[in-house]
């Protein structure tokens, strides 16, 4: 069938002078989780809302399931599920009724719907709260309800716009787990976030955007190569003189080092025994340290390398 | 889709405490409060005649309808007015000194009322004069008919005094009769109850507006969710409106039951007409709510404020907070009455109560239907424009 589930070509959305989305082109393939990663205001929600025909975009074409997406493309909408950044539920309806209501916009068969609603409740583990009203739920549970409302009808294509914003770690893990299950059941997922850990854990492919433009895309590993570093070693150390910082910079394979009063961070572009060499270096110079650990470069380093600023402020 | 939306819309409305209060409880509470306030007035204080003045000039003396009727209303046990026949200067002075509640001056054949506050007695004064005026137009009609008859039968010489007596007799006999203007009959209390019902009708706009807000993607996140679903807007909106209408009817039935059986308001034998008027009044309220939701580009709270503001302004111009306003509008800006649904509803009630013909009542009903149609049409146009939900 269709390999490309979503095709976006030259999408541009202007708000007066501001180009919120600037000539964006990308595809989403069947059964993948594509992560759209970018800082606040980079145009993630604008992109999603344009793809969904909620926004009138300035130019570009958008095809979903091989057909042009339009406000009245009901046959396409039937197979889409959306979880918006804002929680979208009726305050006056219970957890169960909210899910049943939204599921009912897609599925009219009552028995099937009943099963679907139960499945959705199970997926996000809110079985104990069926009779609760939204305002009785904690932030994390509310987010989970929000997700259940968007996916209860078992859509083939799911959009999630920052579903884990302001969520406790337990709910976050639960949500990420649920999303993986959806993919395993055959859904294609477009996921936006500004948490790089999430895309690293979850996404098959990642697009990094900034100021409405794609600045890099690929798998997590291929992106990290762009950071031009292979390893980062962090040393917790209370005192470090300028002299030793300069020496650290000259360690084998080291490309850079800096000290912020607590941590010494050294970047390497290769080498196998960097951590052992570091410990030797500390011992030889009688530097007393608390902890030493090694990290692979993160997407933040990629972002830093490409834009000169941090992904998170 | 219609049933699904209808069912859940009903749940949403009945679960929303604020809505239930304003549309179901508030009118009933007001009715009960009115009852407490008015039963005091009616039982404890025997009705005192209202002190007024009449500018006793040529025009007044020539206007038999006014001079005779006012004369009969100002004598006897239960007289309505204590009348001072004076010149205009003196009447003004008396009003300034608060010796009288207001004065009447006939200009040509039109009555002009001057009052300077808005109390119950001023209300009575204005209403009696209104009524005499409408009766006099009935008399004029009958008079025309009488004259035409005489002319057709070849009688050109007429004794007009005798003609007046004959017409008056005919009016007593026919079902088009001038009403008895005793204080029981002009119950200003009814005016308040009618305004209350009109307000309750218009508050149905809160119901439809709340649901519409949930339908519109540019207003609410829930609206965005609906917009990305394959459900068609039309079906969803119809389900919502049907649910709003049902809740509104439940509210009105409760209000009428309380008014009839507890407050013991006498609606006379016009119940079917009153029900018809309440129905179309509610329709006007619902469509106003839809229009405010669709057309006013602002947040939910701003829309709520706008809707309540429009309804309260309507009530104000229709005389709910005092009849003086209604008189000012009637006299200086009658156009307002043609676009003010509250005025159409209260006018419908007044018409049922005071006039025996139904023509004007039907004009009110039709005006309300036109008002509703206009609101719905401009809302539809607004919705079409938003092909993209432009969040
Ligand atoms: N209605 C609007 N009018 C004008 N500018 C807007 C409007 N909506 C969004 N923007 C601007 O467009 C840019 C992109 O916004 P968008 O909401 O798509 O960002 P985002 O990546 O989703 O950010 P976040 O992580 O905060 O959700 C921002 O600069 C924002 O200020
Ligand atoms: Mg966003």
List keywords for this structure.
heterodimer; A: 313 residues; alpha/beta; Rossmann fold; Alpha-Beta Plaits; 2 domains; 6-stranded mixed beta sheet; 11 helices; 34% helix; B: alpha/beta; D-Maltodextrin-Binding Protein, domain 2; elongated; binds adenosine-5'-triphosphate
Explain what the structure shows.
The complex is a heterodimer of chains A (313) and B (391). The two termini of chain A are 43 Å apart. With 313 residues, chain A is of the alpha/beta class. Chain A folds into two domains: 221 residues, P-loop containing nucleotide triphosphate hydrolases (Rossmann fold); 66 residues, Alpha-Beta Plaits, CATH 3.30.70. Chain B has two domains: 239 residues; 126 residues, D-Maltodextrin-Binding Protein, domain 2 (3-Layer(aba) Sandwich), CATH 3.40.190. Helices cover 71% and strands 6% of the residues of chain B. A four-stranded mixed sheet of chain B has the order 2-1-3-4. Chain B is elongated. Chain B starts with a helix and ends in a 6-residue tail after the last helix. At the A-B interface, helix 2 and helix 3 of A face helix 1 and helix 9 of B. The complex binds adenosine-5'-triphosphate and magnesium ion. Adenosine-5'-triphosphate binds next to strand 2 and helix 1 of chain A.
